[in-house]
Design goal:
The longest helix has 32 residues, at 48-79. The N and C termini lie far apart (89 Å). 20% of the residues are buried. The chain has helices at residues 20-36, 48-79, 167-183, 207-213, and strands spanning 96-100, 117-121, 129-136, 150-152, 156-157, 162-164, 188-198, 219-225. It folds into 2 domains: 20-79; 96-225. Helices cover 31% and strands 19% of the residues. It has 4 helices and 8 strands. Mean pLDDT is 78; it is low at 1-5, 11-16 and 37-50. It is elongated, with a radius of gyration of 43 Å. By secondary structure, it is an alpha+beta fold.
Length: 232
């Protein structure tokens, strides 16, 4: 318990419990005892030794009490130190978080079906329009010359903190991807990734522009392509 002016503390040689005022009174008492019983009186006064011990005990008690005040003050300062707790931000990562919905019951006639894309937006960084970027893995394509493995959709309206891209928009994305895959004679499983980007993204944007205007992280998925018009 902190020892202040009104808080009691036991000190030998004085009252059972004393305050700072009592300690000061005891100190004055010790001085009076010392003056009334000088050291030279020990030769003839039979109680001199007892009185001297009482005086020393009193002074030791006062010293211990004052030392306790310093110790308790130090403990109090330690307890008042603020605890540094790092607070995580409410939103982490890209402005939009996206996820695939369940695959539609009816597959797209284009031979490949991209599931609906759901989104959750940072309330402080919401957009009114966005575009869908679709990329597919072209590592297994055997064709000479450059390969275009990226498709950038037209911008679409998005609203609210949570939602999903329109069904007809995703239907057009599946048809466009099917044309790409059919042109490159892709068969079977194909890995694709999708991302949301700002509506200002150009239709022929390269990697640098896409990364600069992306609103979400890339979301991967593996699909099966069945070419409805095989010519390969």
């Amino acid at each position: 318990m902190p020892f202040f002016e009104g808080n009691p503390m036991m000190v030998p040689g004085c009252h059972s419990f004393v305050t700072v005022r009592d300690l000061q009174a005891c100190e004055r008492k010790a001085d009076n005892v010392s003056r009334s019983h000088p050291c030279g009186a020990r030769e003839w006064y039979s109680g001199a030794s007892f009185q001297n011990n009482e005086e020393e005990d009193l002074k030791r008690g006062i010293a211990l009490a004052l030392g306790g005040l310093v110790f308790l003050a130090g403990c109090g300062n330690q307890g008042e130190k603020a605890v540094d707790v790092s607070v995580k931000p409410k939103w982490q990562g890209a402005p939009y978080h996206i996820a695939f919905d369940a695959p539609p019951a009816k597959p797209n006639p284009a031979g490949v079906t991209i599931p609906a894309v759901k989104y959750t937006a940072n309330p402080e960084m919401m957009e009114k329009r966005a575009t869908l970027v679709v990329r597919f893995d072209a590592s297994g394509i055997k064709k000479s010359g450059p390969i275009m493995n990226q498709m950038i959709m037209a911008p679409v309206d998005i609203s609210g903190v949570e939602g999903a891209l329109p069904a007809d928009y995703m239907d057009e994305a599946s048809k466009g991807l099917g044309k790409f895959l059919g042109a490159y004679c892709v068969k079977g499983k194909i890995k694709i990734t999708v991302a949301l980007a700002r509506s200002s993204l150009s239709s022929q944007a390269g990697d640098t522009e896409v990364d600069a205007k992306r609103l979400s992280d890339w979301l991967p998925i593996e699909l099966v392509f069945k070419n409805p018009h095989p010519t390969c």
